[in-house]
Amino acid sequence: MDELIKRLRDKLMGADRDGALGATRELLDRGEDPTRILQEGMAAAMLELGARWNRGEVFLPEVVAAAELFKKCSELVEPALLASGQKQEGHRVVMATVKGDLHDLGKNMVGAMMKTAGFEVHDLGKDIPTAAIVEAVRERQPAIVGLSALLTTTVPEQRGVIVALEEAGLRGKVKVMVGGAPVTQEWASEIGADGFAPSAPEAVRVALELLTGVPSGVE
Amino acid sequence: MSDSRIRPLPLVRTLDLVPEETIERIHEASIQVLARTGMQIRSETLVKALEAEGGDADLEALRVRFPRDMVEEAIERAPSSYTMYARDPAADVVLDGLNCYLTCDGCASEVVDLRTGRMRPSTKQDLMDTTRVADAIPEISIAWQPCAARDVPTHVQPLHELHAQLLSTSKNIQQMTVIEPHHAGAAVEMAAVVAGGEEELRRRPILSAFQCTLSPLTLDGGPLESAVIYGKAGIPCGIVVMPLTGATAPMTVAGTLVLQNAELLGAITCLEFLAPGTPTFYGVCTSTMDLNSGSLSLGWGPEEQLFSFASAQLARRYRIPSQIGTFGTGAKTQDWQAGAQHALSGFTSYLAGGDMLCASGTIYGGRVFSFENMLLDSELLGIAVRVLQGFPDGDDELAIDVIEEVGPGGHFLAADHTLRHMRGLWQPRFFGRDSWEDWEAAGRPEPKHRARERAVKILEEHTPTPLSDAVEEELRRIIDHHTLEGAIDG
């Protein structure tokens, strides 16, 4: 494999900010195809890191740190992508922490990791009223809407959003994923959600599976 | 294998739970018991020898009463620190009060078969396997014989047991089944072969041993003679007492401690006058009686923890290293009872400041050895070590810069500070930490299943430092010689 692409991968997986940004710049400077930098360098690194996390070989802070660094590298690659006319929008995801809940760490982690997997993420924020979530789905037409809740008192809002999506005639057009500490597969099934994941890397896997219908590369 | 052969438990701080006045009262009372009641030493020769050293002997009753001066002199003679040498020098253990070390136990008569999960009588192969796991894991520093070799001729069983352990570990081997002088002589001979001669064995004794009293206040001739043989060969020989409250000791905690302490000081006095300067230790496996059955209580509880605290304090008072009976449980498997009792006793003995903690891996009152428990116990002690170490409070640890960097409402997950420090966080190896869903999907695994997998893996992969062919041949020759001799004698 190309030495420089390999270095980018290693530095990104090691969450080495200067190393990863440096390698990205060097690749762009020598005129490397930005799609190749993105796919063979950055995305491959995140996929590998996700697999390692799944095997218990790396810790979550390492994955999140790499995901944040991925964002920084993306910002460098973006202009070149746009200039070459190759920029493709990924699957669009709208996500929010439901009304009454200020806990957004889990949602932010899922958002960061989804971006690394190529999703176009629209994060509405925390304490978002049901109506605002429905409105965002109508306007932005995402493939997936992700609903996060940490409190047992706010978890029922997830059901409320699904009901409201049905009432607005939007339910058939979007997959609903739910998450949060008290959320279980049972709850997800009970309220008719399409997907559930107990962790951020797992959420990426489930999202890819929901959209492609096949298990993703992340084991 | 881990990079370090042994993992000491630093004695950063110890807890003197028992008031100093109480320790003094126990000491004074035991001195009185030794002068007034004394001990039965079941060997005329030894009683005579002790009389010559200043003991007040009654030859007919084989009773020796020990004057205070003699006991105090013996305490002075016992070294306050020494090294438990190992065949592999990297596994040497220094008993100097700065670290605590974990040993196995306890010559269990049964093992839990790793394949079937059933209890069955232990064999020489089991002793080799259990010792090999102890050799592999750094948490075990001293290889006290974990189980008995019950499938060999009994008249040479202790020699087969030493043979099995010499083949399976290069850590210090602690013998407990040698209680006859001719066995002690043969064991020294075997150890010398491995060490490279008698002088080399004296310089770096790769064995340690201990002898037990018979509570109350009795010391058999064979064990004491064996202790003297070890001592004269330069091999550390501890004394371990196992009184049972209400049965072989008074019903009260204080009374049991007085009897325990008297037996230990009495036996140490015998040893230090018959083989002066022998490195010895203050070993206790003091327990309570089950009030229903009269046997050892399997409901290991608060009294045993008090015995541990008091024993470690008494040993410190005498400046003699201690070996504290730990991991007492009546459990028959790796259940809540085993976990709770092993955790409490492990933490107690360590906090008490024992130099050596024994019985790792035992269940059912020390009768049964379980590979799983030995590994699970090492996990428990890992937690205790981390707690006693405390935590650093430097500027970097106080973290105000990263608190400023993250600010209100942010998160520390991806901060460099987090990445730099996260490896310092204690990590479980056997405790379950998967999500409920993953746990269900994996078939509801328990810590014991992970521990079993680990044990199986160690047995598949770990090869102890081998002995040379010539040494092995010589060991077999010694055992054969004694096997034949015993058969002729018998």
Notes on the protein architecture:
The complex is a heterodimer of chains A (219) and B (490). Chain A has nine helices and five strands; from the N terminus they run ααααβαβαβαβαβα. Chain A is of the alpha/beta class and 219 residues long. A five-stranded parallel sheet of chain A has the order 2-1-3-4-5, with helices on both faces. The model of chain A has no long low-confidence stretch (mean pLDDT 90). Chain B is of the alpha/beta class. Chain B has three domains: 9-16 and 80-388, TIM Barrel (Alpha-Beta Barrel), CATH 3.20.20.480; 20-74, no CATH class; 395-424, no CATH class. Chain B contains 18 helices and 21 strands. Chain B has helices at residues 20-36, 44-52, 68-77, 124-136, 157-168, 181-195, 198-203, 221-232, 253-274, 302-318, 336-352, 371-389, 395-398, 400-406, 416-421, 436-441, 447-461, 469-489, and strands at 9-10, 39-42, 56-58, 63-65, 82-84, 93-95, 99-104, 110-112, 119-121, 140-144, 172-175, 207-212, 218-220, 237-241, 244-245, 282-284, 287-288, 322-325, 356-360, 362-363, 368-369. An eight-stranded parallel barrel of chain B has the order 7-10-11-12-14-16-18-19, surrounded by seven helices. In chain B, strands 3-4-2-13 form a four-stranded mixed sheet. Chain B is globular. The chains are: A alpha/beta (219), B alpha/beta (490).
